[in-house]
Write a structure and sequence with these properties.
By secondary structure, the protein is mostly beta strands. The chain has 2 domains: about 70 residues, Immunoglobulins (Immunoglobulin-like), CATH 2.60.40; about 180 residues, no CATH class. The protein contains 2 helices and 23 strands. The strands form 4 sheets. Strands 11, 12, 13, 14, 15, 16, 17, 18, 19, 20, 21, 22 and 23 form a 13-stranded mixed beta sheet that branches. Strands 2, 5, 6, 8, 9 and 10 form a 6-stranded mixed beta sheet that branches. The radius of gyration is 30 Å and the shape is elongated.
Length: about 290
């Protein structure tokens, strides 16, 4: 009887150990995770689909947490800021290699309130020059609906900036290429203010801008062409940003001249030194001007 009991006890132990070994050997160990994206370059407002697989090729999308940098995101992920986004997937203690997805502002649009809005026409205004030698300009990308007296301009962006005047020259120096960070009008090559209308609604008034950036990438002015390429970002009062892109022809308006008419930016335009009050008056005239 003792032998029988001992035999049954040993058999029971063997079966238990055997069953435990089977559970632990259920499949290859998970040692990593890989992130896949549906696209590595999208316009703002568009989405990318994120999926993940472990090192064994098993789909673990439902089990991971996706990140844009350190911010948790979900799939599909809609991009709302331009530039490179470093995306990763985390599964338990494993983090995938980063995948970079670029967010782009669609050509000749302004991205605001989650949508892209057309701005396919532009004007460069000259408002005058400060005593410190800074020329004050306005970049005005916009769109037009209708013609003549009934024309409207639903998306109308004004970016005010300064650029250096060539010392000793009586003729206007056009803006130089490069980035114009937010600053004071007493300096050259800075963005000083902005005014934003989207779908005929003013979403940023003048003189309340706390951050804006304008980047002039190309400027061509000769006998056959008058065009420029630029991008910009403007902070709204609620803390969000609008982002814009323009590439194409522009009309030039000398708002500091006696007769503020459209002309060629390549013609010899006399520098007009203005007081702060005159500069403000010229700006007010730009905002009140009918573009037709």
């Amino acid at each position: 009887m003792k032998k029988l009991f001992l035999f049954l006890a040993m058999a029971s132990t063997t079966m238990f150990v055997s069953c435990g070994s089977d559970d632990s050997d259920g499949g290859p160990a998970v040692t990593g995770v890989v992130l896949t994206v549906s696209s590595t370059s999208v316009d703002l407002g568009q989405s990318v689909t994120l999926t993940a697989k472990d090192n064994n090729g098993e789909d673990v999308t439902a089990d991971v947490v996706f990140y844009d940098g350190t911010t948790v995101v979900t799939s599909p992920y809609t991009l709302t800021t331009p530039g490179a986004h470093s995306l990763t997937a985390k599964l338990d203690t494993f983090t995938s290699p980063a995948v970079v997805v670029n967010g782009n502002v669609a050509a000749n649009t302004v991205f605001a309130n989650g949508t892209s809005n057309v701005t396919d026409i532009s004007i460069m205004y000259y408002l005058g020059s400060t005593e410190a030698g800074a020329n004050v300009f306005v970049a005005n990308p916009y769109n037009q609906v209708g013609t003549g007296e009934t024309a409207t301009y639903p998306n109308d962006i004004y970016v005010y900036f300064t650029s250096a005047q060539e010392a000793g020259s009586e003729f206007l120096t056009l803006p130089e290429l490069g980035n114009y960070a937010f600053g004071l009008p007493t300096s050259s090559k800075v963005t000083i203010d902005a005014n934003v209308f989207i779908n005929s609604q003013e979403i940023l008034e003048t003189e309340v801008t706390t951050d804006a950036n304008w980047n002039l990438e190309a400027l061509t002015v000769d006998e056959t062409a008058q065009s420029w390429d630029f991008t910009y970002g403007i902070k709204l009062a609620n803390g969000s940003y609008v982002y814009g892109d323009f590439s194409g022809d522009f009309e030039f308006v000398n708002q500091a001249g006696r007769n503020s008419a459209r002309s060629s930016a390549g013609s010899k335009i006399k520098v007009v030194t203005v007081t702060p009050a005159e500069l403000q008056a010229n700006l007010d005239a730009v905002l009140a001007k009918n573009k037709k």
